[in-house]
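User: quick one
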Amino acid sequence: MMFFEGSEKKVEAVMQPGQPSLRSLGRPFWAQLVAKANAEILSSVHNEACDAYLLSESSLFVWEDRFLMLTCGTTTLVHAVTEFLKHFSEDKLAMLTYQRKNEYQAQLQKSSFSDDLASLAPHLKGKAWRLGHLDGHHNYLFHLDRPYQPQADDATGELLMYHITGADAEYLRSEGQTLAGIQQRMGWSQLLPQFQFDEFLFQPFGYSMNGICGDRYVTMHITPQEDSSYVSFESNLEAEALIPVLNHLLRVLKPQSYDLISFNLPCPLAHAEGVQLIDHAEQTLDIGYRMAFQHFLLPNTQVRSADPL
Amino acid sequence: MMFFEGSEKKVEAVMQPGQPSLRSLGRPFWAQLVAKANAEILSSVHNEACDAYLLSESSLFVWEDRFLMLTCGTTTLVHAVTEFLKHFSEDKLAMLTYQRKNEYQAQLQKSSFSDDLASLAPHLKGKAWRLGHLDGHHNYLFHLDRPYQPQADDATGELLMYHITGADAEYLRSEGQTLAGIQQRMGWSQLLPQFQFDEFLFQPFGYSMNGICGDRYVTMHITPQEDSSYVSFESNLEAEALIPVLNHLLRVLKPQSYDLISFNLPCPLAHAEGVQLIDHAEQTLDIGYRMAFQHFLLPNTQVRSADPL
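Assistant: Done. Structure below.
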């Protein structure tokens, strides 16, 4: 059985004023950082505000004063973070968060969140949290313990979708799918008409996308395998632009279970009939963000067979 | 934070007719087997049909022609199984099942279910299944691939309870709790008046119990820690005796999430208001058992804070 766990890990860092532009560090610097996470740069797009690198099932966005790297699978993102901290120590940072979702094949990961905290501890003084019950979906966050005031429009939404169903999910699992076919189903040109996209279609299936427009980004990673399907979408779009995108993805992909994680973003979605909120945790962080975690689920009303191993 | 995961693993084996009595192997044989799983015998009770050993957060029941061993925490039950198979090879067995629940700290376990299958493969030809979604609660089962016909009264029910709440849960977490206090709350003398019990109270808390009556057994293990509370109860009682016990435990312990796993046992329970069945898988096994897995959950309607790590 083909198995790929979309076990996302994410780092976001903002530099202190007066630091050199992170973009000026150039692609070789970032390629070397990405390599520390066991990933590689596949392609990139650039605009006046941002360099967006599409990695192997992962993404990296670099702005003048901040960067965001998001990796999946058994990547070792924490090694990229500690490498970055060799060049820019804690006192150069205004803000840093390191985030990890729950994993269901934790034994296949090269480290646990707790191990990652131990790797970060010599470099950064921080606080760590878990949002959501340990035996259900949950999300871990570590942040640098330093007061920070995000800008008014600094908000993030992350939608993690499991068990996608329906005709479009079947299309994503099918051979012969095309980028045009995926784009059309996801509605990028209608929903995000101003965005510049960078996409990659894996063989036999799997899709990664970065999109940028000014200092706004979207990123999506699809691992459609029937037994372990997982799609993540994340963006710093303002709520009025983001919510229609998230609602469209829920309508198209029909996930039977999904997590909505947000930072400073009220994000009321249009849930399908029968979908229930089964866990909800919120935390005001000392770094100026209100983090929310919600796990939604469509109860499985049919008796299923066992999965043969 | 004190953390103990009740990551249960279970083996049950039935011998071919004509094999020597397993009880006649004596306590040293079983003590050595238990040691292979990194557990130890704390105490025991015996009746005309069964020897019941209470282990460190684990249990072992030995009948003339079958045995059942159930271990928790980071025990290595599969090593006890392979040790047993050195003495009694596949052709001496009429039936063998090896079962493991999902783990939420899989990286702390010494092996995964997949690793365990690899350990068993040289000794046994079998089939393996997962009941329940990978990203939710689920249960793994391996069984010897040999036709078997269980007796008409051979049925098992397992109730795995998470996030116990209410006054009785608080009692189980409190200092100064007593065996008499637990017995009274669990209602053993009313519900199982004919049973002979063997119990152990851990410090500062935690409770293990075996009970036997003829060839029937009950076993319960409580790890009440607030952040990761978990209680398991299992028995081969017939449905009309078992269901009142399970309903009483649900009423007393008020778990917010629980799994009911059964073999050849229709087991309709009295669920509290608001409790939902969120996943349900059933499988007819070639060894004569119908296995059912149901995950029940009381959706968390209040916004909780994050858990600090």
